[in-house]
Amino acid sequence: MSAFQGKTVVVGVTGGIAAYKTCTLVSTLRKRGALVHVVMTRNATQFVTPLTFETLSNHPAVTDTFARPETWEVEHVALAKAADLFVIAPATANIIAKLACGIADDMLSTTCLATKAPMLIAPAMNTGMWTAEATQNNVETLRRRGVHFIGPEGGLLACGDTGAGRMSEPEDIAEEIERLLSGRRDLQGLRVMITAGATRERLDPVRFMTNDSSGKMGFAIAEAARERGGEVILVKGHTTAAVPSVSRVIEVDSTRDLYSAVTETAGECDIIIQAAAPADYRFAESHEEKLKKQDGQELVLRMVENPDVAAAVGKMKKPGQTLVGFAAETQSLEANAKAKLSKKNLDLIVANDVTVPGAGFNVDTNIATLITAEGEEPLPMMSKRELADRILDKVLALRDA
Ligand code: PMT
Fold first, then answer.
1. Which of 121, 219, 232, 360 is positioned for an S-S bond with 246, CB 3.0–4.6 A?
2. Which of 274, 282, 349, 353 to mutate to test the pocket of ligand 1 (most atoms within 8 A of CB)?
3. Same domain, 242 and 390
4. Tens digits of residue pLDDT in 139-195
5. Does residue 159 carry a catalytic annotation?
């Protein structure tokens, strides 16, 4: 049965040109079996008429232009209670700010404040407004409260600027809604540690060695694990992606810091997934003062091996624990990954060839092969979020075996 069947999705529409794309979203949701109600702000009605949404949703579109204000109280409570999911598309900087502050001064913000349903926000605005510190702080506040975001995407904006600010495509929003509606809670009661990001090995106060890990892969797993009911501990090195809200975040700098954080916490965890990219080597000497340039002279730096965090966790593995590692390879993907699987005493290794476009570092997709002692499962290119769920499915299957 479709995840949409019999579910009520309330679609909030705010004033932006992307509101025309919300017509397709409403129509898609209905075609897939959802009951759809639309709530529009006064500004939204300037872009698309309520009649359009009424026709597409087959329900009256609720707006702020009330003929009979006495229906206000009843209607906002009724929709807030009826919603299985609340989506705001497009969401302006204004509605995001109102939700972050708990302001309820119109039909949409009032209904949002009253609802207990999961909420998905698809922002659309000018790049400057999206990147403004105030907006980003509001987004962070909402994320911490468990609100989900999709987009905005980059590209040419209606205002003529280029950058992040375009609303995600209706099909992508519908897919995200489907994922949220099908919400499995199969990690309930399990504590999951996930490592993400790059370590830094310091040469002197201004120089360090690192890699391109953005944290996207580890964060996608953390987000998926949280949504599936797991208690998530995120151990993160240096990252550029938005950090998901989880039970606990431990920040680390070097591989040795990662080693301490992970080995100290591993004993408390049921599942440990190591997507971080720790440096295998560090400088033999780390200088207190900035190294001076020696004109005309070669600089030879000696490096020593760092501890292998995953191997250490593998050595201290407790009964009932499931250990997952990643293998970032540039050649002989499967052979190298299999060697790491056994050397690090892992239950599962996620092998990715980081030279292939659409895979590996700092992209939103990955191409991976899931390898266990029993066999291997090559997967096509998919979003890191989708891969995260495939990894968690595999972990649960291994635990049930
Ligand atoms: O963060 P993104 O930009 O999304 O990029 C994702 C990713 C490419 C970083 C991720 O998909 C990935 O492949 N992570 C593993 C990177 C890595 O260090 O691979 P490795 O083959 O060198 O290490 C194998 C395993 O041992 C990994 O689980 C790693 O975390 C771990 N390791 C490595 C070195 C070390 N000293 N200690 C470790 O525990």
1. 232
2. 274
3. yes
4. 988 877 778 889 998 877 777 878 889 999 999 999 999 988 987 889 989 999 999
5. yes
Partnered with residue 86 across adjacent β-strands are: 10, 119
Q: Which amino acid is at 210?
A: T
Please name the amino acid found at residue 67.
Answer: A
Residue 333 beta carbon below 6 angstroms from any ligand 1 atom: no
pLDDT, tens digit, 9 for 90 and up, residues 124-150: 999 999 999 999 999 988 877 778 889
Q: For a substitution probing ligand 1, which of 280, 326, 350, 362 has the most ligand atoms within 8 Å of its CB? A: 326
Q: Is 306 in the pocket of ligand 1 (CB under 6 A)?
A: yes
Of the residues 137, 156, 181, which one is the last residue of a structural domain? 181
Judge contact between 93 and 60, C-beta under 8 A.
no
Ligand 1 within 6 A of CB of 326: yes
66 alpha-carbon distance from chain centroid:
38
What percentage of the chain reaches a pLDDT higher than 70? 97
Please tell me whether residues 121 and 240 are part of one structural domain. no
Q: How many residues are recorded in the chain?
A: 401
Backbone phi, then psi, for 220, in 5-degree steps? -60, -40
Residue 361 Cβ inside 6 Å of ligand 1? The answer reads yes
Same domain, 167 and 203: no
